[in-house]
């Protein structure tokens, strides 16, 4: 009787009941890939919205500029309107201007306003707003932006009654620069003494943000 020869064929680990050694994962790679893709999409959207306005750009064009799949734009941001809102919030520096010592808020807002006047070329945000104003979807986004990025942070800095009304009054000064820029340009304001303009604006913001004076009964 011949000797039995053992079968030397490899048995899959799953079939043998043995656990296959886990291959080391590349830590953080998927997250980094997603973050890089999101950044390219946001940059492409900012540029295209600035060049053509909200209605003049499609999600497909944004994806092509970002070298990304259209499905990823929708997966990461949900819609073109939501993407516009993300770009708008990301380009804004006003939240950082508002944060800080409440007593210095009027001066910080005035200095921010003057810096915007002194911009020799339109910022990405101003181009986006100039080319997209009036669109119904954009109006909703701007209302949310105004509420979340400007009004509520200002309210958090205020004490006393009527905080929302005071925050909205200051917001009117902040946001009112856009229509003035579009209709009249900024040459006259740029020609004025920046220190004087800053002082005047500080007085305006101080008055807007001050608690109301109640007449004594």
From TrEMBL:
<feature type="region of interest" description="Disordered">
    <location>
        <begin position="1"/>
        <end position="36"/>
    </location>
</feature>
<dbReference type="InterPro" id="IPR009057">
    <property type="entry name" value="Homeodomain-like_sf"/>
</dbReference>
<protein>
    <submittedName>
        <fullName>TetR family transcriptional regulator</fullName>
    </submittedName>
</protein>
<dbReference type="InterPro" id="IPR001647">
    <property type="entry name" value="HTH_TetR"/>
</dbReference>
<dbReference type="InterPro" id="IPR041678">
    <property type="entry name" value="TetR_C_16"/>
</dbReference>
<keyword id="KW-0238">DNA-binding</keyword>
<dbReference type="InterPro" id="IPR036271">
    <property type="entry name" value="Tet_transcr_reg_TetR-rel_C_sf"/>
</dbReference>
<dbReference type="Pfam" id="PF00440">
    <property type="entry name" value="TetR_N"/>
</dbReference>
<dbReference type="InterPro" id="IPR023772">
    <property type="entry name" value="DNA-bd_HTH_TetR-type_CS"/>
</dbReference>
<dbReference type="InterPro" id="IPR050109">
    <property type="entry name" value="HTH-type_TetR-like_transc_reg"/>
</dbReference>
<feature type="DNA-binding region" description="H-T-H motif">
    <location>
        <begin position="58"/>
        <end position="77"/>
    </location>
</feature>
<feature type="domain" description="HTH tetR-type">
    <location>
        <begin position="35"/>
        <end position="95"/>
    </location>
</feature>
<dbReference type="Pfam" id="PF17920">
    <property type="entry name" value="TetR_C_16"/>
</dbReference>
